[in-house]
Amino acid sequence: MSTCTYTTGGEWDNVVHNDESAQAKADRLNNPTIDKSTQELVQWIQDLYASGAKLWTKEMLSNIEAQLAQNPVPEAISIRSRTQVNGKNIVQLLPPSPPVTNSGGGEIPSVCSLTVHFEMYQMIIERAEQSMLESNREHYSRFTPDEIRMLAAQGVRIYFATFGKSSIEYSKVKPSWVQARKNWLNSSLCRELSNILGSTVSISNAVTKIVCFGLGSLATSIENPTRMADDGLPVHGPGTQHAAALTLATVLGERFGKEPLHVMVQDPAYSEADKKILEEVGIEVIGGFGSLGFTHVDEETIVFSCHPNIPVRQIVADIAKPAAMIWNKGRDSEEGAEYKVFERQGKEELSTPYSTDHDSARTRKLLQDYDEFDFPNCYSRFGDLAIYVRKG
Q: Which residues belong to any copy of the SRR1-like domain (predicted)?
């Protein structure tokens, strides 16, 4: 099988615009100047997506994770995808690990590691519109038209990412977790969710596990200033979310006449203290490089995700039809979406029209096969969630 090989030095990144103001960048992104070849490229990606071609497959993600897990890590990673042209694989050369410095001097040291980066559909279109501008044309002349299409439609890249991991000791994190879980179990929210799961929704008893994405670090959250929710209890979002996952497992296990369902979680922010505490309560922390959790999602899975920093909904829509999903409500739209300039601390910044877990035509199509139920309303702890249960 032939391949397209590239490095990670900006082969398909936006054109660099030095000293560009926030307003100029907003204008450029909202009103891209597209020539005929770029227009054809964008239309090709849109047609490809509309045809049902997958940006992500479980086979592709499993293959990437297996390659990155090798010791030593190979110099290049082969990325397979159904969006390939002419049967070609994309081979990405991995960069050397960059130096990492801590700028704040606080308690959260930076950890740099190889990570699977997901490019959601909206950003793929945007990057295609921007990357083929005339100012960058010479750079792309070394690629054939087929290779340009392959790179443009790529939903996965491997980067070195920097994560802030809390260094707070286990002995300090554990009491916070215990209190957060106690508050949750004694709350009206917990009772409401238990009632919904126990009687209102009809979830297949073939469910075997709950796979969670982006529930947050127990340790990092206690470093933030304490604030109170509407019920008068201190907000501990990650603690409450993990406690809710255990409630899901217990209530559904009892309803199905089983032991509590198996709970698996993935979040790059987990500290060593987090992992130890979660393992103590029977929650399996998924390792890997950022995509391994998705390889565990199937028709016997409940997906639980609270405002994650990756496009969980778009990825799941490509790889499976879970028994149920508890995640952000499917309300996003691209209609009228535009970048806007706002001021923060006397400096102009750019707001994106897209959430990190934005909807797409494919996620909206997926949800047509699901019944929607309300999730207990507590935005400060969960965000704007809904329960989606597969019909039939």
A: 204-388
